[in-house]
Amino acid sequence: MATLLVKNIGILQTPVGSHSHKGAEQGENLKLRNAAVLIEDGLISEITSDGKLPEGGEKADTIIDAEGKLVTPGLVDGHTHMVFGGYRQHEIPMKLKGATYLDILRAGGGILDTVRKTREASFDELYDKTEEFLDEMMGFGVTTCEAKSGYGLDFDTEMKMLKVINKLNEDHPMDVVATFMGAHATPDEYKGREDEYIDMLCNEMLPYVKEHGLAEFADIFTEDSVFNYEQSRKYLQKAKDLGFLLKIHADEIEAIGGSVLAGEIGAMSAEHLISINEEGLASMAKGGTTAMCLPATSFYLGANFAPARRMVELGIPVAAASDFNPGSCPSLNLQFVMNLACIKYRLLPEEVLTAVTINPACAINRGDKVGTLEVGKQGDLVVWDAPDMEMLCYRFCSNMALQVIKKGNLV
After folding, report:
1. CA distances from 139 to 15, 74, 136, 322, 387 (A)
2. How far is the C-alpha of 380 from the C-alpha of 295, rounded, in Å?
3. Could you tell me which residues are beta bridge partners of residue 176?
4. What would the pLDDT profile of 274-330 be if each residue is shown by its tens digit?
5. Which pLDDT belongs to residue 303?
């Protein structure tokens, strides 16, 4: 039995429980001083405080002295598009000249430019590139993440992307949860025939993905010039009938009903929500849908920020994720997301920690395994170069993760 002890923890700070935290509970963290954590065979077996060591801890195979630093659960990034071919740095001059996200998409760029490059890339090329991204993410303290397809938009490439995600989940220390997002945009070959494309996804791709166990979630981009409310409902209802858990890109640019649909259909999370209105907020609160907010995307696009403070007040669970992708957010630094969540969303440090641990863990159906430091959960934790959460929310553009532990192994 492999054992690892982390001792001399100045503050061990964690949400508690395996459920989404909303309202006042968003800001409730357990804080233990002079704490220690014992991990046996990848699972937390004992947590102590006030200088007491877990029984047998001094004989652990590996002992890490936290030297009075802060320790939290490993971070959970609940929204990424990390499997793609090429980059899109050439769009920067277009954006500086005033072109919007939708302007670039309508001109055949944006997502469609990445689609062309992803179709050209081999399995091995995508695997190697994504593996490097996972290494970098883990270096920032992320120990579990979600990854979407959606840069193929044809059968072969979408399946190739999902197989890359599944293979990396097997091979890499990171736990990677797969989301099928064939409804990311309409490919060139279906331009003007969006309804036919949705039918193809419903009748061919979704059943195949489910039959072969390639993804746990299904997602769609509900937005002006992409997919409307009716198309999104048809797609998500088919996915739900097949047994997928649901996500929806909603209200990023225009509030066309995506967040309303999220609550109505029981989506586990709605993503972006920059332009959400009161009707959408009410629907999400009623439906128990987590708000997967993406502040680094707002930062990069020069857009508004989602009303996260209002969401907390309304009892909507709030999560914050990177949205790492080659177009609207080429950064996978979840620590920067934490800074923005504090500064731009006006979330307290305790609320921020919940937003990058247990709430995204629940939104990707992993709340029973990760997202908190509790006996029986995976031994995923981070020793930070900081005395408290306030310092993590205060410092930015520096990597504050000193040591990252995944399933009881130092990575």
Report:
1. 22, 11, 5, 14, 19
2. 25
3. 145
4. 999 999 999 999 999 999 999 999 999 999 999 999 999 999 999 999 999 999 999
5. 94
**pLDDT tens digits, one per residue of 318-350:** 999 999 999 999 999 999 999 999 999 999 999
Q: Which of 111, 254, 123, 94 is nearest to 188 (CA)?
A: 111
pLDDT for position 78: 98
Q: How much of the chain exceeds pLDDT 70, in percent?
A: 100
pLDDT, one tens digit per residue, over 90-110 is: 888 878 888 887 787 777 778
- CB count within 10 Å of CB 93 equals 9
Helix (H, G, I), strand (E, B) or coil at 377: coil
The continuous run of DSSP H or E covering 246 comes out as: strand 245-250
> Nearest CA to 5 among 70, 55, 75?
55
DSSP per position, 204-273: IIHHHHHHTT--SEEEEEESTTSB-HHHHHHHHHHHHHHT-EEEEEESSSS-SSHHHHHHHHT-SEEEE-
Q: Is 357 helix (H, G, I), strand (E, B) or coil?
A: coil
- What is the residue type of 247? K
- CB-based contact 294:333 (threshold 8 Å): no
Between CA 237 and CA 374 the distance in angstroms is 36
| Two structure tokens written together for 123 | 């399995």
- Nearest alpha-carbon partner for 239 in 274, 272, 214: 214
Task: Quote the pLDDT of residue 393.
Answer: 97
User: What is the dihedral sign for C-alpha 20, 25, 27, 28?
Assistant: negative
Q: What is the pLDDT of residue 103?
A: 80
The answer to whether 66 and 49 have CB atoms below 8 angstroms apart is: no
pLDDT confidence of 186, banded at 50, 70, 90?
A: very high
The Cα 304–Cα 298 span in angstroms is 6
Tokens for 369?
A: 């395994």
Both tokens assigned to 308: 């996260």
Burial 370-384 (b: 16+ CB within 10 A, else e): bbbbeeebbbbbbbb
